[in-house]
């Protein structure tokens, strides 16, 4: 069905009566001067007041009329008058066609205006002089328009402009079908814009952070020799250009013999193209596609190029498979000049009940090592429903040097134990839950010492935990139980069963709490000794454990720096009693020392695992004070001081002959943190050994982040050195400085300086610059990373990123986000893919 056409005309004078006596007179007109404004008056017609448009429906013919002999004016009609009959309009009189009120237009109505309008009913209409055609959100302007009603086509010549939504095109000549948006446009210049994604609920932007690029309208513009309109959202340009830069500054653009923009699939395709940057062709593109939005799509992603002293020239070409909205796959070919061709594959998936990632990289022939090398990981989390859930985390590499040779990540080069485990949990019991796990590791030699220490495998580990609060008398029952079978290729193996039932009585008010607790830690061992047995194959241990935890919170109103705060004073006292039991005959499968901190000094045991339980008769005291903003509840200042006091000496050691504590005081802990402004944070912590009168550990850090992509962090760390080497300096000292900051204009600097002050060695160094030109970004970064005690990895990253069309070079973004606290991508705030770069193995 053709769209309904409506032609509206304005005459500046009443139409004349002509012909013989008794001729028919014209009906009155509707007057709408507010819509029309002043209209030109033809020289041949007498002036009249309040000219009004004649409304002609799409069923009324525009018939030629005889030349007028005289002109007679008639009064204007009132708003309450009935609709008028068709008017005969002389072609010789200039006619301006004005729109009816918006509420009078139905969807699909065509409105044509111009200085002159003529035509035949149901055939065509011609508008000349400031001619315009409008239908819904489509607008066509030109010096002359010819509309063909039968085919719904419009032909425009002279200063043609077409506007449809966010699309604008201009040129000397155009012909198209209005509704179907099919036609041709000669020598067009164009701007095509599409809205970005809506902001997710609860999105908060940092000061200075722009709206993420995925949420910004994506606008492309350019010019062409000709344009083929192939339907709504379909554009084909011949000898055309496209860029996302501003029209007045097209720093880069794609120039192609044939350029197709498909906004339904949100993909652009160039054939016989060239990428031009600053007037310099960067490369010939026989065929290439590029994204027209931030949506995921299948295709070749931007290649990355870099270099390092470990792999030489480093070129990666990824192909992305958008298999479904909730899973994808990326296949990458990586060429390393010194080592050869490597293949990578990464698969990611997310559903309401499970999610995971599979990553594999394989180097068939390392030309340096003369062998094949690989690395891979499988991670899967599954919610089976009804309280059941499972997890798989399996990883492995071909050889101990794999990470130091082929990775640029400090966390990977220092990896010693690579996990391999699977678990199944049940939490549908309400007050109880259970789990089963199989766990082993691939153990690598330490990168600095070369020592290889393999932990025990757990094949399997079974746990059952229960918690029942509000039992009779206000008591709470808690049960922690476990069965583990420990396996090791060279050391003593065994099985351990642990039951730890506990009863507590929480007594709590708004100001204080007291919680006494008593429990019995019972353990049974079945041991398989290697070599000569050092004890019975069956060992058991039962220890009663008693504790009382108490605390008080005092509050008062105060002011600081002209602002009101709530100040708290929170003392805490914790008493613990555990009798001594000889545990020297029990093998140590998984026990070690906890890190000494504020959480650990209130723990029941100084050892991890379940093979060693230290005797205890001790009191722990701590005092904490905070300043809290009463309006927001935000914590501005926190200061804490804590220490443990021993009433008996330590008698349980990790292994025979290991040193044991004899002093009455544990290390003193102190911490202070403050947010003086939302932009400035300060943290420090101190661990002091009162027995030997020295500092065990000390660190202090300052971070200043006034806005997005503006951050500076400085930290200094010290740890006491227990080395017996007299030439070894006393204590490990580490200085870490990092930051991202605008240097001038849109030029940013980014750096990290992490130095081992004791050994006078740079652990990690990063230096780079970034330049944001609006529609393109340049990044150049150099990284030096210590991989072993005698070796370093130097990497170079150079990237040109073209907004809306990918990038060339090697991307340093993942490395910068991991190693520079507060780093912000200066031209974007989100990623369009299912996972993130942090998923990389």
SSE blueprint:
Elements: E1 5-11, H1 33-36, E2 52-56, E3 110-113, E4 116-120, E5 124-135, E6 138-148, E7 153-164, E8 167-177, E9 182-186, E10 189-194, E11 218-223, E12 226-230, E13 234-242, E14 252-262, E15 267-277, E16 280-291, E17 299-300, E18 304-308, E19 312-324, E20 327-336, E21 340-350, E22 354-366, E23 371-385, E24 388-397, H2 402-406, H3 410-413, E25 417-426, E26 432-443, E27 457-468, E28 476-487, E29 493-504, E30 507-508, E31 512-528, E32 538-552, E33 554-560, E34 563-578, E35 616-628, E36 635-646, E37 668-677, E38 680-689, E39 694-707, E40 710-719, E41 732-744, E42 747-756, E43 761-772, E44 776-786, E45 792-802, E46 807-809, H4 813-819
Parallel strand pairs: 1-3
Antiparallel strand pairs: 1-2, 3-5, 4-5, 5-6, 6-7, 7-8, 8-9, 8-10, 9-12, 10-11, 12-13, 13-14, 14-15, 15-16, 17-19, 18-19, 18-45, 19-20, 20-21, 21-22, 22-23, 23-24, 24-25, 25-26, 26-27, 27-28, 28-29, 29-31, 30-31, 31-32, 32-34, 33-34, 34-35, 35-36, 36-37, 37-38, 38-39, 39-40, 40-41, 41-42, ...
């Amino acid at each position: 069905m053709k769209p309904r056409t409506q032609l509206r005309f304005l005459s500046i004078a009443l139409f004349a009566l002509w012909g013989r006596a008794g001729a028919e007179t014209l009906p009155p007109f509707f007057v709408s001067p507010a819509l029309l404004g002043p209209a030109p008056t033809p020289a041949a017609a007498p002036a009249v007041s309040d000219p009004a448009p004649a409304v002609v429906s799409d069923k009324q013919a525009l018939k030629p009329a005889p030349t007028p002999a005289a002109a007679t004016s008639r009064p204007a009609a009132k708003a309450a008058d009935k609709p008028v009959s068709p008017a005969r309009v002389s072609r010789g009189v200039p006619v301006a066609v004005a729109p009816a009120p918006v509420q009078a237009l139905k969807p699909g109505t065509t409105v044509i205006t111009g200085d002159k309008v003529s035509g035949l009913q149901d055939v065509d209409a011609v508008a000349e002089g400031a001619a315009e055609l409008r239908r819904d959100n489509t607008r066509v302007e030109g010096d002359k328009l010819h509309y063909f009603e039968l085919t719904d086509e419009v032909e425009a010549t002279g200063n043609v402009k077409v506007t449809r939504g966010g699309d604008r095109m201009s040129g000397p000549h155009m012909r198209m079908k209005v509704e179907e948006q099919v036609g041709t446009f000669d020598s067009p210049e164009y701007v095509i814009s599409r809205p970005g994604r809506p902001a997710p609920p609860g999105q908060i932007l940092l000061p200075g952070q722009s709206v993420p690029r995925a949420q910004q309208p994506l606008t492309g513009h350019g010019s062409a020799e000709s344009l083929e309109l192939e339907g709504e959202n379909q554009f084909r340009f011949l000898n055309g250009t496209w860029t996302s830069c501003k029209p007045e500054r097209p720093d880069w653009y794609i120039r192609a013999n044939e350029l197709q923009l498909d906004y339904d699939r949100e993909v652009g395709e160039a054939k016989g193209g060239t990428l031009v940057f600053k007037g310099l062709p960067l490369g010939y593109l026989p065929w290439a596609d590029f994204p027209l939005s931030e949506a995921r799509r299948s295709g070749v992603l931007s290649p990355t190029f870099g270099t390092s002293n470990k792999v030489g020239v480093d070129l990666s070409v990824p192909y992305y498979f958008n298999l479904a909205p909730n899973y994808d796959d990326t296949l990458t070919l990586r060429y390393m000049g010194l080592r050869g061709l490597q293949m990578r594959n990464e698969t990611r998936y997310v559903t309401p009940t499970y999610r995971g990632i599979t990553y594999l990289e394989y180097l068939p022939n390392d030309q340096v090592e003369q062998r094949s090398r690989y690395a891979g990981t499988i991670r899967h989390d599954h919610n089976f429903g009804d309280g059941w859930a499972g997890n798989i985390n399996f990883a492995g590499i071909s050889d101990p040097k794999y990470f130091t040779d082929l990775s640029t990540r400090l966390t990977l080069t220092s990896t010693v134990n690579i996990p391999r485990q699977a678990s199944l949990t049940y939490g549908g019991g309400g007050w109880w839950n259970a789990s089963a796990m199989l766990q082993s590791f691939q153990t690598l030699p330490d990168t600095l010492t070369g020592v290889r220490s393999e932990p025990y495998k757990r094949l399997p580990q079974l746990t059952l935990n229960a918690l029942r609060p509000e039992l009779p008398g206000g008591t709470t029952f808690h049960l922690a139980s476990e069965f583990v079978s420990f396996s090791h290729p060279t050391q003593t193996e065994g099985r351990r069963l642990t039951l730890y039932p506990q009863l507590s009585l929480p007594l709590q008010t708004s100001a204080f709490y007291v919680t006494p607790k008593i429990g019995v830690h019972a353990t049974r061992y079945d041991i398989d000794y290697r070599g000569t047995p050092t004890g019975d194959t069956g060992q058991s241990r039962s220890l009663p454990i008693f504790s009382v935890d108490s605390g008080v919170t005092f509050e008062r109103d105060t002011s600081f720096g002209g602002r009101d705060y709530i100040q708290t004073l929170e003392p805490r006292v914790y008493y613990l009693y555990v009798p001594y039991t000889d545990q020297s005959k029990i093998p140590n499968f998984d026990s070690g020392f906890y890190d000494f901190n504020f959480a650990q000094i209130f723990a029941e045991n100084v050892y991890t695992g379940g093979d060693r339980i230290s005797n205890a008769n001790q009191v722990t005291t701590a005092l904490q004070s905070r300043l809290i903003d009463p309006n927001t509840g935000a914590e501005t200042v926190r200061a804490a001081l804590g220490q443990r006091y021993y009433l008996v000496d330590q008698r349980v050691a990790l292994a025979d002959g290991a040193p044991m504590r004899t002093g009455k005081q544990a290390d003193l802990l102190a911490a202070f943190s403050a947010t003086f402004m939302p932009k400035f944070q300060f943290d420090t912590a101190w661990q002091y050994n009162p027995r030997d009168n020295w500092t065990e550990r000390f660190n202090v850090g300052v971070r200043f982040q006034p806005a997005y992509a503006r951050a500076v962090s400085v930290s200094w760390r010290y740890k006491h050195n227990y080395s017996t080497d007299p030439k070894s300096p006393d204590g490990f000292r580490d200085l870490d400085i990092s930051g991202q900051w605008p240097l001038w204009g849109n030029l940013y600097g980014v750096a990290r300086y992490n130095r081992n002050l004791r050994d006078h060695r740079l652990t990690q160094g990063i230096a780079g610059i970034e330049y944001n030109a609006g529609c393109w970004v340049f990044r150049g970064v150099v990284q030096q990373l210590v991989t072993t005690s005698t070796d370093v990895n130097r990497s170079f990253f150079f990237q040109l990123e073209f907004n809306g069309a990918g990038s060339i070079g090697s991307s340093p973004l993942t490395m910068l986000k991991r190693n520079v606290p507060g780093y912000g991508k200066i031209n974007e705030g989100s990623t369009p893919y299912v996972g993130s770069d942090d998923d990389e193995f």
